Amino acid sequence: MLSLFKRYRELLIVGTLLLYPLINYLSSGHKGREPNLADRVVLAISSPLQRGLTSVIEGSKGGLDGYVALRGARAERDQCVADLSAARADLNAMREAKAENERLRAALGYTETTVEPELAARVIGVNASPHYISLRINRGEGDGVRVGMPVLTHDGVVGQVSRFVVGGTADVMLITDPSSRLGAIVQRTRVRATAVGAGGGAPLKLDNVLREDDVVDGDVLITSGTDGLFPKGLVIGRVQKVEREANAMFLKAQVLPSVDLRKVEEVLLLPSTLALAPLHGEVKK
Fold first, then answer.
1. pLDDT of 159-195, one tens digit each?
2. In this structure, is residue 262 part of a structural domain?
3. pLDDT surpassing 80 at residue 249
4. Is the entire prediction scored with pTM above 0.90?
5. pLDDT value at position 57?
């Protein structure tokens, strides 16, 4: 309809301008007399034309109005889509911030009784070498970090600060590192033990437990506080695969860490006046 109007626009306008006065005159201008035969012929011929012109003009006007309205609706839709995308991005950022807040608050629950302030840090790197398994954090000596400081999350022990790195960062030796040794207690029976890193992503080894000691699969292992570095009562993991060989003095067992070390994002560093050296071995330079 719109294309037809554009094609014959000049002709339709001229025809309307010429016919409208005549039609108006014939239909209303001779109020004093009855229309004669010529008037009736003109009216009969012009009336369909007048109705067609009126229909074309009104239809074209309606089409133009609809087109303008449609363009406006599309613009509004595009703006709504953009606003929705921005709102979703903001919501996702808020969710991430909330989750991080909850993780740090949970970790702080471990340290409510400490005198010195705790220090929160973010993991910015991972070293998965078989000989040195560590995380890199965005805190360093200038932030009050000391070599040997215990590092944990709300789930339990992660490791300890092992060395400082340039740029105000530090490395954390994980408890799965072969050099890591933690003084431990079986929470249920208070049996003392040592949790030793096995490296290669394997569970820790449970050492120094006599074959007749009361230790079973599923027991919770916590820090004993006797190594001078980790405070007592932090969760290390759960005992699994307990084996008692007939001729052995010590039993064999593994310890599955309570922290999924592959997914650590934020950690908490605990103050320790004895935080002077790693649990085992020399500080790596």
1. 999 988 877 899 999 999 999 999 999 999 999 999 9
2. yes
3. yes
4. no
5. 58
Alpha-carbon distances, residue 141 vs 63, 122, 134, 262, 273 (angstroms): 73, 15, 17, 25, 15
Distance CA 93, CA 64 (A): 44
Do 99 and 41 contact (CB within 8 A), yes or no? no
Q: Which domain holds residue 195?
A: 120-269
Name the CA radius of gyration of the chain, rounded: 42
Cα angle for residues 235, 239, 245 (degrees, 5° grid): 150
The CATH number of residue 188's host domain is 2.40.10.350
Can you tell me the distance from the alpha carbon of 33 to that of 26, in angstroms, rounded to the nearest whole number?
11
Q: Which of 216, 220, 205, 201 is nearest to 260 (CA)?
A: 201
- Our count of domains for the chain comes to 2
**173 in any annotated domain:** yes
Task: Using DSSP bridges, classify how beta strands 169-174 and 181-186 pair: parallel, antiparallel or unpaired.
Answer: unpaired
Cα separation, 158 vs 40, whole angstroms = 104
Average pLDDT in the 36-41 region? 56
